[in-house]
Amino acid sequence: MQFKLATLATISAATLAAATGGSGSPSNQCNTGTLQCCQSVGAANSTPIAALLGLLGIDVGSVTGLVGVTCSAITVIGTSGTSCSAQPVCCSNNSFNGVVALGCTPINLNL
Predict the structure, then answer these.
(1) How far is CA 61 from CA 47, 54, 64, 87, in A?
(2) Does residue 24 come out as left (phi exceeding 0), alpha (psi in the -120 to 50 range) or beta?
(3) 26-81, pLDDT tens digit by residue?
């Protein structure tokens, strides 16, 4: 009986840990969007980014997530020559030729 109770407690704890997710730190992969290396990343409503979005005709109020500025694609992680000396992010909208990327989430390539 004690063995069954201990097994049930262990399984319950493992299930709870898996269901609660990580620590909230940046992940090391893109679940949605593409992997980008951006020279800077910030909120859409920050003054310099809002001005840039305005010049591109993008409504600041419609932007969710962070905005990457001066971004380039990172194609393969772990191969020689592929690195990002700025901010690696996953972005859901990269249709602005690298000037800006919308809906960005920081990631950690060092994991």
Answers:
(1) 13, 11, 8, 24
(2) left
(3) 455 687 778 899 999 999 999 999 999 999 999 999 998 899 999 998 876 555 55
DSSP state of 24: S
Q: Which residues pair with 102 in a beta bridge?
A: 67, 93
- Predicted TM-score (pTM) of the model is 0.66
- Pairwise CA distance, residues 38 & 24, whole Å: 21
Phi, psi of 93 (to 5 degrees): -135, 105
Calpha distance 77→14 (Å, rounded): 30
Distance, C-alpha 69 to centroid of its chain: 14
Which residues does residue 104 pair with via DSSP β-bridges, in sequence order?
66, 91
Helix (H) or strand (E) holding 11: helix 2-20
Find how far residue 7's CA is from the centre of its chain: 37
Element holding 68 (H helix, E strand)? strand 66-73
